[in-house]
Amino acid sequence: MNHFPRPHTPRRLAAACLALLCGAHMAAAQAWSLTLAAASRRVFLHVGNGTYDNNNGTINLVQVTVPTAQLGNGTALAMTSNSTQATSLYGDNYATCPTPASQVMVGASYRRSNAFNGPASATLSVTSPASLTTTGGDTIPISQVSWTVSAPGSNAPNVIPAGTFNGGTQTLATVPANRYIENCHTFSYANSAVRAAGTYNGRVTYTLSSP
Hints:
Blueprint: E1 13-22, E2 32-35, E3 42-47, E4 60-64, E5 77-78, E6 80-81, E7 104-111, E8 121-127, E9 131-133, E10 139-141, E11 145-150, E12 163-164, E13 169-176, E14 179-189, E15 200-209
């Protein structure tokens, strides 16, 4: 596990969104888990493009276009991303996501000054809609979208796991006090059935909270 301090942004509840657009195989899981100096109670979260010193309203997009010849053939298709965030936001500029065109960086941290200054951890979760939808009302179950995780050069525990959206709120990770966790998410579309032609949209929201 690798430990070194990096800077921070104050909040006790943070949320970030990711848009999904559709027109898995589980990889080896890695993450960075970094020790931070104790400080006043705060949480920090970023998904895709972000900044560590103020709020950022950017909503990044992941998308896939299904070729006609592959419609519903059950072969999962990789989704691309419009994120450009390749390097970590935490001071050392480490290339956590070397290919952001196919990855989305997710990072979260929780700080407190001592054991009496708030809970021992914060909770990272993601909330997704039941379906991706078109303007005409056609739907694709959100469970058709999954993600794998990676963090080049790290052998730290799988602190933000791979998974599949379930149309509800899923707890992804527990962030201990004075710790920052970070890795890359690579999304894919299961392509398990033929769908009506159209552009299917949805939005998922990641939340980091400390009561």
